[in-house]
Amino acid sequence: MFLNIIEGISAFAIPLVLLFIPLYAYYKKIKVYEVFVEGAKEGFNVAVKIMPFLVAILVSVGIFRASGALNYITTMLAPITRFIGMPPETIPMAFMMPLSGSGAIGVMTDLLTTYGPDSFIGLVTSSMMGSTETTFYILALYFGSVGIKNGRHTLPAALAGNVAGILGAVLISNLVFR
Q: Does residue 11 fall inside a structural domain?
């Protein structure tokens, strides 16, 4: 029943948002196309500015995965994750997502290929992907591009949000899909 409600809402969510934006812009007398083109120009300039930070974070993620540290951490945390209802196979996803979206997509693709998208592991992994953020990527990229040296409480708050997202994904997946 709950799954049917979620599927019904999700079927209309994106079309409604895509319809709402131009209607709201029309109501506010905003020229959507001109604003879009101006934003695209600004986006290109930002992309050029953040390129060094992007390369640095992607190299760091590659080193982390290749070192075997992720496999070691997975083995150590497996008993704890089983206890809370989180399949140990999803631990690499939980660790990779705060580091890199592309790294997390690689881990998710491996899990979905191995276990299938409709398996419990696949469903938890997909839920994690939508419930967490690329914290270190964002901090390195955006803070670095604007010259912020001291993020104060940003990292602890963002990591707490990621932990909440992971635990929420596991809880909701256990409630809805089991």
A: no
| Helix orientation angle between 101-115 and 120-131, rounded to the nearest 10 degrees | 170
Give the integer Cα–Cα distance in Å for 25 and 28.
Answer: 5
Residue 59 counted as domain residue: yes
* Rounded-to-integer distance, Cα 16 and Cα 43, Å: 26
Amino acid at 167: L
Torsion of CA 135, 77, 58, 116, to 10 degrees: -100
Measured distance CA(155)–CA(42) in Å, rounded: 27
| Torsion sign across C-alpha atoms 150, 156, 161, 162 | positive
In a domain, 74, yes or no: yes
Structure tokens at 86: 């989180």
Reported as a single tens digit per residue, the pLDDT across 92-103 is: 899 888 888 877
